[in-house]
Design goal:
Helix content: 25-40%
Radius of gyration: 13 Å
Number of domains: 1
Low-confidence stretches: none
Largest sheet: 6 strands, mixed
Length: 132
């Protein structure tokens, strides 16, 4: 499953849930694959990867500065326990995209991040601008 398909599956599921969703949105010094606003105004960022989950964990460190919740999105696979532990330790969530295109949240972020208010507001405004 190409990364583009992962992004599309997650975006379509979030839109169905009523989220405001944008893709490839600037967030601090990176680009977030997916940035979304939930029903409570919380900012979510989802970094999508086909492989290299370790690289995704490193990328989420920056995203956590501008978001309330950060996830890694990846195709469903049998993930090694060490990788799952690394994701949990980083405080981010994990979303699997199933072969049928549905999404399954495997790990929830263990806490809401203490985002920089100015960075979070900039990201929020970028999402709103794209979705209007």
């Amino acid at each position: 499953m190409p990364e583009k398909d992962i992004v599309e599956a997650i975006v379509s599921n979030l839109v169905r849930m009523g989220f405001k969703v944008a893709t490839e949105v600037a967030n601090i010094y990176r680009s977030a694959d997916i940035a979304a606003l939930d029903h409570n105004g919380k900012v979510w960022v989802i970094e999508c990867k086909i492989s290299s989950i370790g690289q995704a964990v490193r990328q989420t460190r920056i995203h956590k500065l501008g978001a309330d919740k950060v996830f890694i999105g990846t195709p469903y696979r049998n993930t090694q326990q060490g990788t799952l532990d690394m994701i949990k330790e980083a405080g981010v969530g994990l979303i699997y995209v199933m072969p049928d295109g549905s999404i399954h949240e495997v790990i929830q972020p263990c806490r809401e991040e203490k985002a920089w208010p100015s960075a979070k507001e900039k990201l929020r405004q970028r999402i709103i601008q794209v979705t209007q």
